[in-house]
């Protein structure tokens, strides 16, 4: 029988100062002033229309992403959080993350966001080398990124994340390790370190830059994981590295097939309905103009995940994590019997991509290296 998992909330702020050439997120270059209060009010109205999905739960985590959410004022974020809490109770140790561009957040604003209720930052650094930042279209400089991290320490933030890419245009192994070493020296509790990929509908897709070859990419990955481990950053997810007990709780809920409401332009949600024994996917209106149109509903798409796709949906998320996968979790959060996995798990173990015990299964290091191949086994 399908059971209710923890509930998170994703809030999307769609505006950026500039659109980065690699970015395929729903972000829009800012033209003039942000309609801040109008948009914040719409977010709360949007949330009110999703309240039936809460089903008596408290919020496990909130992630305010974008776009560049740090373009919103600290009083605006405080107003938003207070109104969210008025509608849905917060868990005692709720994690509330704000994405921030080091080029769009001043030192005082970091302190003000903390006062507003933010207890975790995610700084979009991407690189600590100016030529790479320029190529990536980032608006911040190297020193601004370092200052943002230092200020987070200064205002007493217990945890923050640095978002860092590798496999950048013309990047060498030495370049990548220098970026990681600089990030580690700033002592974040969490690092998101992931490879740049070229996505459709981006400037890079139309005009591809010269990226490192596969051999260099693998050398970077191996050396980087080793360096991070040496400094106490444990890899708990494909691109997530944290010091002890500082994993991103919001992302963990995603990857463990938890539920989340999505509010704001183009925001996605995933909701379990135990009484109907089904899982829903929701998507909100994508463009700010349409989202703020009072004549339109916020919901753009609302559909049930077909039973035959639930195994793949679950595994597509769960296989990102390094931890064991309890079969009881699979049964509780999909409503399916563990036996539906038997054929695929046998194929995966035969190829040494997974290990299986009585109560759990786990991806092997080889499986993480060939994760796409492993995922295809769960598509049938």
Describe the structure.
The protein has 380 residues and is α/β, with parallel strands linked by helices. The protein folds into 2 domains: 7-252, Aldolase class I (TIM Barrel, Alpha-Beta Barrel); 319-380, Arc Repressor Mutant, subunit A, CATH 1.10.10. The protein is built from 15 helices and 17 strands. The strands form 4 sheets. The chain has a 9-stranded mixed β-sheet, with helices on both faces. Helix 2 (74-87) runs parallel beside helix 3 (107-116).
With strands numbered from the N-terminus, the spatial order across the biggest sheet is 9-10-8-7-6-5-4-1-11
Task: Report the oligomer.
Answer: single chain
Using only C-alpha atoms, the radius of gyration works out to: 21 Å
State the CATH superfamily name of the largest domain.
Aldolase class I
Low-confidence blocks of residues:
none
What name does the CATH topology of the largest domain carry? TIM Barrel
Count of helical stretches: 15
> Tell me about the biggest sheet?
9 strands, mixed
Content-based structural category? alpha/beta
Mean pLDDT: 95
Helix fraction by DSSP (H/I, runs of at least 4):
25-40%
- The total strand number stands at 17
Distance between the termini: 22 Å
- How many structural domains does the protein architecture include? 2
Sheet-strand content, in percent, reads 15-25%
CATH architecture heading of the largest domain:
Alpha-Beta Barrel
Write down the overall geometry.
Answer: globular
């Amino acid at each position: 029988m399908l059971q209710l998992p923890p509930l998170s909330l994703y809030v999307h702020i769609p505006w950026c100062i500039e659109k980065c050439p690699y970015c395929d997120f729903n972000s829009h270059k800012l033209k003039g002033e942000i309609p801040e209060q109008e948009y914040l009010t719409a977010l709360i109205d949007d949330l009110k229309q999703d309240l039936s999905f809460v089903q008596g739960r408290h919020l496990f985590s909130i992630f305010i992403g974008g776009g560049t959410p740090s373009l919103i004022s600290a009083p605006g974020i405080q107003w938003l959080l207070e109104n969210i809490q008025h509608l849905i109770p917060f868990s005692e140790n709720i994690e509330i993350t704000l994405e921030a561009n080091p080029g769009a957040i001043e030192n005082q604003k970091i302190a003000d966001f903390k006062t507003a209720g933010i207890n975790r930052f995610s700084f979009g650094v991407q690189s600590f080398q100016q030529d790479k930042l320029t190529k990536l279209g980032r608006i911040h400089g190297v020193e601004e990124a370092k200052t943002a991290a230092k200020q987070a320490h200064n205002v007493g933030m217990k945890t923050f994340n640095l978002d860092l890419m590798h496999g950048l245009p013309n990047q060498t192994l030495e370049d990548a390790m220098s970026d990681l070493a600089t990030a580690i020296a700033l002592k974040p509790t969490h690092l998101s370190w992931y490879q740049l990929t070229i996505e459709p509908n981006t400037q890079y897709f139309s005009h591809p830059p010269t990226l490192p070859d596969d051999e260099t990419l693998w050398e970077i990955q191996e050396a980087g994981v080793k360096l991070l481990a040496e400094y106490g950053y444990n890899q708990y997810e494909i691109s997530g590295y944290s010091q002890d007990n500082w994993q991103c709780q919001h992302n963990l809920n995603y990857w463990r097939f938890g539920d989340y409401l999505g509010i704001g332009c183009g925001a996605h949600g995933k909701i379990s309905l135990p009484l109907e024994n089904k899982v829903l996917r929701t998507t909100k209106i994508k463009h700010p103009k349409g989202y703020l149109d009072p004549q339109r509903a916020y919901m753009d798409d609302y559909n049930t995940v077909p039973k035959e796709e639930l195994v793949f949906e679950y595994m597509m998320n769960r296989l990102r994590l390094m931890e064991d996968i309890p079969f009881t979790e699979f049964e509780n959060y999909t409503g399916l019997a563990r036996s539906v996995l038997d054929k695929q798990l046998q194929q995966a173990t035969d190829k040494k991509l997974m290990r299986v015990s009585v109560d759990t299964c786990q991806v092997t290091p080889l499986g993480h290296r060939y994760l796409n191949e492993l995922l295809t086994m769960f598509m049938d």
